[in-house]
Design brief:
7 helices; 17 strands; GMP Synthetase, Chain A, domain 3; alpha/beta; four-stranded antiparallel β-sheet; 341 residues; single chain; Rossmann fold
């Protein structure tokens, strides 16, 4: 409730699947606690224009949606929709600063990012009235003491995001149903480890890096897939993307993007070159995407990309002499060398 900024009298719309914990936090518990109205709109297939019409027609004042939804909303002429929104937030994945800027220009409203897990409530967030740096998740929310742990388990300014459990936060689960061997021991090391990597800037804002098992090294540089995906997803042709390590001919891990296209676009060598060029112009040279494949992304029932499946598939693929059917490599396009980060 503190992160969302809900007040009595608000009409709150939360766009999330029922399988997400956030469907409970934002779709029921937070507005209920605040005395706000829970607004529900059922649909079989998301349509940005229809959703914007609904938000205007029913006077929604607070909106929460994942980045995938915000990406579709900003494709519309937002300025032509006289919304009554007072607060807007995003969670689930890092939110692109370009989306934040676009919404601010059209609606005069800042979309605030945050971070939490199914095992917790919201841990970190950009709260109403807080001056936050774009691209950050914000600062620790009331009720939690956050730490970043290095590989040795020591607190640092970059590392695995963890929650101190002495005393144990009320918002942290007791254990996992039907698997009590995973029950969280509140005195085991003094922390609950999230499995997510982050860094903290000089102002105390947290920046998301990625899942600990998703981050990989390429020529001794650490690569955060999320950082590359945020850039790729800015292109209008991309509905979703996932970056995984791929072994090149020298046995070096290089970034490869698996891309799911918007229904208005078709896979082609020309589009592959355009996307590689688009990413190169916006990323440091050591972060450039070397390979790109057009494919449907495997997802969980709640819509999250199954990255572990993609990594396993990529490893198997590199054991074969041939590429995937719609896979392109940077060496296929000599003109890419003209692009400098």
């Amino acid at each position: 409730m503190y992160w969302l900024g809900l007040k009595e009298g608000d009409v709150h719309l939360n766009i999330s699947s029922p399988g997400w914990a956030k469907h409970a936090w934002s779709g029921f518990f937070a507005p209920w606690t605040a005395g706000a109205t829970v607004f529900v709109y059922n649909y079989l297939r998301f349509n940005a224009k229809t959703m914007l019409d609904v938000i205007v027609r029913h006077g929604v004042t607070t909106l929460c949606a994942p980045p995938a939804i915000w990406r579709q909303l900003v494709q519309e002429d937002l300025a032509s929709y006289p919304v009554r929104l007072r607060e807007a937030v995003s969670s689930g994945q890092p939110l692109s600063p370009e989306i934040v800027s676009h919404v601010e220009k059209r609606w005069g409203l800042s979309v605030r990012d945050g971070f939490g897990q199914t095992e917790t409530t919201a841990l970190i967030g950009n709260t109403p009235g807080m001056k936050a740096r774009r691209g950050t998740m914000g600062k620790p929310l009331p009720g939690y003491r956050i730490a970043l742990l290095d590989p040795a388990g020591n607190e640092a300014d970059e590392g695995e995001l963890a929650v101190r459990v002495d005393p144990r936060p009320a918002g942290l689960l007791l254990g996992y149903q039907d698997d009590w061997k995973k029950t969280l021991d509140p005195v085991s090391g003094g922390y609950y480890r999230t499995g997510d990597m982050a860094m903290r800037d000089g102002d105390g804002n947290y920046v998301y890096v990625g899942r600990s098992d998703d981050v990989f090294k390429s020529s001794e540089y650490r690569i955060s897939p999320f950082e590359l995906e945020v850039v790729l997803n800015e292109h209008e042709a991309i509905a979703a993307s996932a970056v995984v390590p791929s072994l090149d001919a020298n046995g070096v891990q290089v970034p490869k993007a698996v891309v799911e296209l918007d229904e208005d676009f078709d896979a082609s060598p020309a589009l592959a070159e355009e996307l590689l060029r688009f990413a190169r112009a916006r990323l440091a040279s050591y972060k450039r995407i070397h390979r790109l494949e057009f494919a449907s992304l495997p997802k969980t029932q709640t819509g999250k990309i199954r990255r572990v499946e993609l990594r396993r598939r990529e490893a198997d693929l590199r054991q074969q002499p041939d590429r995937a059917p719609q896979e392109f490599w940077e060496e296929d396009f000599p003109s890419l060398e003209e692009v400098h980060a």
